[in-house]
Structure formats: structure tokens, C-alpha cells
Amino acid sequence: MGVGKSTVGALVAERLGCAYRDTDDDIVAAEGRTIADIFLDDGESAFRAIEKRAVSEALAGHDGVLALGGGSILDADTRALLAGHQVVYLSMDVEEAVQRTGLNAARPLLAVNPRRQWRELMEARRHLYTEVARAVVATDGRTPQEVAQAVLDAVELKEA
To answer: Is 115 helix (H, G, I), strand (E, B) or coil?
Structure first.
């Protein structure tokens, strides 16, 4: 959440000369409302079902770089689908998250006591991220361009 997956994903896709896709964008387009509104109107479980479907469809129909929402790995079926793909976990610490996003209320899972909630989310999810990831790339103190190059290096897809 707030790690820069959309920016970095687009840069990696550009450097590889392939398409970029973000399942969060797919969800917003399909539902005609923001992710925050889906959470507020329908609840997290409804959002997770929509997200699961979006990730499954994207993995089946997209050959380029795909960015997934931070909670998508909570689903065991989604983690199984990711097993055959080159997954990179972009990591950052809470202080970097504060600087980048302000941990604001536009992120529904962080609406109350955002620092504590961010830490709890990361503690609950980190092992799942590392379970599916081929590589972990720290984003702290790096520009999006530096992170994109680190991703390419990490999955041995260096530019020619």
C-alpha cells in the first residue's frame, strides 16, 4: 500500500517494451466507483471477491507487467495462481509509507490510527508476500527509476 507499485510497474513495462496493467484500475473501471467506496458501501469481503476475480482474469489474459493490490495475496487461490509467475514484492517501512502517502483516510484499511494499522497489516501479510515473491525489492529512499532497475535486476530481466 503506497509502495509505488503502479509507478514502478509502468516503468518496468516500458523498459521491457510490454504492456502494463493494474488490477486496482481494472476494479475501478468495472465497478464504476473507487476502491474506498466499494469498501464503505459493500465491505471488505465483497471487495476481496471482486479483487480475486479481477486478479484471476488479469493473470489469464495479460502477458506484460501486472500490479496487484496489496491485499490480493490474502486469498489462497490467488497465491496459487501467482506460483507460475515472476512476482516481485516491493517493500518499505512505515516511516517511508508516512512520507509517501501520509497514511491518509482515503485508504480504507488505515482510517483509524494509520501507523499502527499499517504495521499490523504488514505483519499479517509480509510472510504471504515473501511466499509468492521470486524477489524482494526495498523501495525506501529510492526513486521509482532506481526501484524499476532493481526489479529488472532482481528477476534477471536486465535491459539489453
So the answer is: helix
- Cβ atoms 133, 89 nearer than 8 A: yes
Nearest CA to 9 out of 98, 72, 86 is that of: 86
pTM given for the model: 0.81
User: How many Cβ atoms from other residues are within 10 Å of residue 122's Cβ?
Assistant: 17
Give the Cα separation of 23 and 30 in Å (integer).
10
Burial bucket for residue 127 (CB in 10 Å: 0-12, 13-18, 19+): exposed
List b or e across 27-49, with b for residues whose CB sees 16 or more CB atoms inside 10 angstroms.
bbeebeeebeebbeeeeeeebbe
Residues 6+ apart with CB under 8 A from 122: 94
| Mean pLDDT by groups of 10 residues along the chain of 160 residues | 86 96 97 94 95 97 94 93 92 65 52 67 84 91 93 72
Helix (H) / strand (E) element for 67: namely: strand 65-67
Q: What angle do CA 88, 79, 59 make, to 5 degrees?
A: 75
Q: Which three cell numbers stand for residue 113?
A: 490510527
